[in-house]
Write the structure tokens for this entry.
Amino acid sequence: ATPGPAAKTARGAAPTPASRPSPKPPPKKTAKALPAPLPPSPAKRLAIPAITIEAPVIGLGLDRAGQLYSPPVDNPRLVGWYKDGPTPGEKGTAVAVGHRDTRTGPAVFLNLNALKPGNTVRVTREDGLTAVFTVDRVRTYDKKRFPDKEVYGPADRPELRVLTCGGAFDRKKGYAANVVVFAHLTDVLPAGAARKA
């Protein structure tokens, strides 16, 4: 046993301090469980608080070449969602697109490349629920070497990709790259909650 404060060793040395209880370890942070995938419901509005975006969403299809149509250039504040893919919050990869700018000036996703991991993208659906996605990473890919499978491939959980143009701009060819935000579902807000948050 450790001697108490008044005890001395055989040689008369100074007393050994009483043993102190070791400090309690800080409580472990438990990771919040991811929400279950949502049933299908079309996207209606998209908000990205970190870059002050709140915009209506319209459904888009593919052209004859299999490329996703862009939102109309005469309404640069619109976001497009690939309506033939998973809806936001449903299991799989939902895809949203928007212009960076148009001939008339800046557009809805001008600052998309400024997003950081941990930022959120909130998609309000037709059923009133808001699917909250947390950004995992942001990448810029040259259009000639665009990784289709990585960006558009299937996922076993609800994920979201948000795309716009990026890289160098050429007046004849347009932008040389695409900015892609990778995010996954981390929360679901009930109807009306997104407006208060």
Summary: The mean pLDDT is 86. The domain at 43-196 is CATH 2.40.260.10 (Sortase; Chain: A;).
